[in-house]
């Protein structure tokens, strides 16, 4: 699996990386590492000739010596350079630097400062269909351009979709066409050197079943990415890559609406069409998929919660004969066989470790040994036996079988003649002259017998008599095995210990020669002792960056799986919170370890509590672990007592532990009505207005025109809100 051309602009390079600071081909100055993959690493670099920032993908040390890898790297440059599309990462140059005494094969590409679609999924998913399709559309457009150029990406996944930051336009670009090949009749197989190309979570079923890919494999992967954008989860998961691949073959991608019920039926249908297990039911290439995507976007713009006609048109068709198509969303098994052993061979995984192959053999033979040549592929031969010298009892010692073609020595046919086809007639004896016996005859015969006996005796000694049989000592401890071998007159030597899943530590796994094998009398037998099951502890990676954590896993026999985003109040964004499984867990070699990365502090959106109950606001905010304070309590003629007059901040985003401040209403201010009885109307009005009241006058029933106050409403001594109207009664 290749790294993307750029993962994050701010990712730090690994400390002590020998490439940092080097200038490749006296032009590209390496500044920092920004991504690392199984075959290559990607660096931020400066093109000193053109004075611009570029991304340089460098093959890992040692791989440049492998002609197959180097040729594949060059093919990547040529294939990607053929694509000129605004949503494809551009390839500028390819080179091979030998200044440090080793081949450093590299590609120079467009530098995209920003983040990947994986980062967006961590932060935003599950997301609305409109947002998901807006992110996927440029990806499908780029794939369509590649398919029209005769290229297949073969590794479509969120990590290979780069999104520039806002300062650089926010453009979406598809990266890493490193696994793409020109489509032809003889270059469609996905296995190169025994390694299955593509990331297992996005592999189309046909890649697992028969190892062949076309543009529809990219369509399938794009459909899986769409499912992940809509739901925040991958459609198929398992404990091992083999199990995930098995589910891609035998199980349909579920409808996204099963996890997110608000998703319209036609969006479900688009996912089902793109991820159909029957590739004939998928869009023929990404250009056709883009057309369907535009139809769905139009329905979303129209605000349709459901469109049965569009959904029916997009759903995969049923197979002829009325039977459900294998691609329909059920758990029916597809017709193609799933060869877990063959997949394990491609992915360099012991098939018995996959949990999918019933193999009862007690030994630890390799996958290649368990996939012998089919008898139909072997040449037809006929055994020809040769006999070794007899032993003391006169019986043949061995029967060595050699293989020779059946027709290697054809019988010579009889020569045709007049008598052909008739029984042969008797031939008259020819008279002979008696010959005198010679003494040389018997002597030669005796010498021949003696020579033959000597040769037979020598052969017996050198080929048999001086050898003994190796005793069986498997599963014995070293002391018991040594005693048994020495008792048989053999010397014992300790070989290199080896791991074993079946034999306890300290016991014998194997011997050389093996049990029952021939060994010279007094010869040496090598013991191989078991180290027990091979296991490794998950290292403590908390607090490290994603790049540093991947380096630490690469230094062990454990495999990096994926990164999962989680909010954290204590761990800075981008650093490892923990691992899955947790640090210290003991795992088999090759086991997958996922990284839980911090997304930073969880943002808390606050609402405006103005005019609402302060007690309710305090309870709600403290429940979200925010600090609540009262700046002041003020009189208010409009806000009831105990409600919020104002808050700071009024709206926006806070984080756990932040403080929000309130001004709380005491209600309207109350003022006591003073005594104004017997006062002149002018003096009474001045007094009341000075206290903030509004004054009105009215003639009393005994009005005489004197201009004095006989009483008021409200009466003196009452507490009324400031600004209230006081009526004066005049006499």
UniProtKB/TrEMBL annotation:
Reactions catalysed, as given in the entry: L-threonyl-[protein] + ATP = O-phospho-L-threonyl-[protein] + ADP + H(+); L-seryl-[protein] + ATP = O-phospho-L-seryl-[protein] + ADP + H(+)
Residue span of region Disordered: 314-334, 408-437
Ranges where the PASTA domain occurs: 464-531, 532-599, 600-666, 667-731
Keyword terms, alphabetized: ATP-binding, Kinase, Membrane, Nucleotide-binding, Serine/threonine-protein kinase, Transferase, Transmembrane, Transmembrane helix
Statement: the UniProt record of this protein carries the keyword Secreted: no
EC number: 2.7.11.1
Species: Nocardioides hwasunensis
Gene3D superfamilies: 3.30.10.20, Phosphorylase Kinase, domain 1 (3.30.200.20), Transferase(Phosphotransferase) domain 1 (1.10.510.10)
Identification of the protein by name: non-specific serine/threonine protein kinase
Protein kinase domain sequence ranges: 28-294
InterPro entries per record: Kinase-like_dom_sf, PASTA_dom, Prot_kinase_dom, Ser/Thr_kinase_AS
EC class of the enzyme, as a word: transferase
Membrane-spanning intervals of the chain: 445-464
SMART domains cross-referenced by the UniProt entry: PASTA, S_TKc
């Amino acid at each position: 699996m290749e790294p993307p051309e750029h993962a994050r602009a701010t990712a730090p390079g690994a400390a002590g990386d020998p490439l940092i600071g080097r200038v490749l081909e006296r032009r590209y100055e390496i500044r920092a590492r920004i991504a690392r993959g199984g075959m290559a690493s990607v660096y931020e670099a400066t093109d000193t000739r053109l004075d611009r920032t570029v991304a340089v993908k460098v093959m890992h040390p040692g791989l440049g010596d492998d002609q197959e890898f180097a040729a594949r790297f060059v093919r990547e440059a040529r294939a990607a350079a053929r694509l000129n599309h605004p949503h494809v990462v551009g390839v500028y140059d390819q080179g091979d630097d030998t200044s440090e005494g080793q081949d450093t094969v590299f590609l120079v590409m467009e530098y995209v400062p920003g983040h990947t679609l994986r980062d967006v999924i961590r932060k935003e998913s599950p997301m609305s269909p409109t947002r998901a399709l807006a992110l996927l559309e440029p990806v499908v457009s780029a794939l369509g351009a590649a398919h029209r150029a005769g290229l297949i990406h073969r590794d479509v996944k969120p990590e290979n979709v780069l999104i520039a930051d806002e300062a650089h336009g926010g453009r979406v670009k598809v990266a890493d066409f490193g696994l793409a090949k020109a489509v032809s009749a003889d270059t469609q197989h996905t296995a190169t050197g025994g390694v299955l190309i593509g990331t297992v979570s996005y592999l189309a079923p046909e890649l697992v079943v028969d190892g062949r890919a076309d543009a529809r494999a990219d369509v399938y992967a794009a459909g899986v990415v769409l499912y992940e954008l809509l739901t925040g989860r991958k459609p198929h998961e398992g404990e091992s890559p083999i199990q995930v691949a098995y589910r891609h073959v035998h199980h349909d991608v579920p409808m996204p609406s099963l996890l997110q019920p608000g998703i319209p039926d036609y969006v479900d249908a688009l996912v089902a069409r793109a991820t159909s297990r029957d590739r004939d039911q998928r869009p023929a290439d990404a250009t056709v998929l883009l057309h369907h995507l535009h139809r769905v976007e139009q329905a979303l713009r129209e605000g349709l919660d459901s469109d049965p006609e569009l959904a029916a048109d997009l759903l995969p068709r049923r197979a002829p004969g009325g039977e459900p198509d294998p691609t329909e969303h059920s758990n029916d098994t597809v017709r193609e066989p799933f060869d877990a052993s063959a997949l394990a061979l491609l992915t360099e995984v012991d098939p018995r470790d996959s949990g999918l192959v019933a193999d009862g053999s007690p030994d630890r033979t390799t996958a290649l040994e368990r996939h012998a040549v089919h008898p139909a592929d072997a040449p037809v031969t006929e055994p020809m036996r040769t006999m070794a010298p007899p032993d003391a009892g006169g019986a043949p010692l061995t029967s060595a079988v050699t293989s020779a073609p059946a027709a290697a020595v054809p019988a010579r046919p009889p020569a045709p003649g007049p008598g052909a086809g008739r029984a042969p007639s008797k031939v008259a004896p020819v008279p002979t002259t008696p010959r005198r016996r010679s003494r040389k005859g018997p002597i030669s015969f005796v010498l021949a017998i003696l020579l033959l006996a000597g040769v037979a005796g020598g052969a017996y000694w050198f080929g048999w008599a001086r050898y003994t049989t190796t005793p069986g000592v498997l599963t014995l401890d070293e002391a018991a095995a040594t005693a048994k071998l020495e008792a048989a007159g053999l010397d014992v030597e300790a070989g290199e210990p080896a791991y074993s899943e079946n034999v306890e530590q300290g016991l014998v796994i194997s011997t050389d020669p093996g049990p029952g094998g021939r060994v010279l009398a007094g010869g040496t037998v090598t013991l191989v002792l078991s180290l027990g099951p091979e296991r490794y502890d998950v290292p403590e990676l908390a607090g490290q960056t994603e790049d540093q954590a991947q380096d630490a896993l690469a230094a062990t026999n454990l495999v990096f799986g994926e990164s999962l985003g989680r909010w954290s109040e204590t761990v800075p964004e981008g650093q490892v919170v923990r691992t899955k499984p947790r640090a210290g867990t003991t795992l088999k070699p090759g086991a997958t370890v996922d990284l839980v990365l911090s997304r930073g502090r969880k943002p808390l959106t606050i609402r405006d509590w103005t005019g609402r109950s302060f007690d309710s606001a305090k309870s709600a905010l403290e429940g979200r672990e925010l600090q609540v304070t009262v700046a002041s309590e003020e009189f208010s003629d409009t806000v009831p007592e105990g409600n919020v007059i104002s808050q700071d901040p009024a709206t926006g985003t806070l984080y756990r532990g932040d403080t929000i401040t309130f001004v709380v209403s005491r209600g309207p201010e109350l003022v006591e009505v003073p005594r104004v009885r017997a006062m002149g109307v002018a003096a009474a009005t001045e007094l009341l207005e000075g206290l903030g009241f509004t004054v009105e006058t009215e003639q009393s029933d005994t009005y005489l025109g004197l201009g004095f106050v006989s009483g008021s409403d409200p009466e003196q001594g009452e507490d009324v809100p400031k600004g209230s109207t006081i009526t004066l009664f005049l006499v």
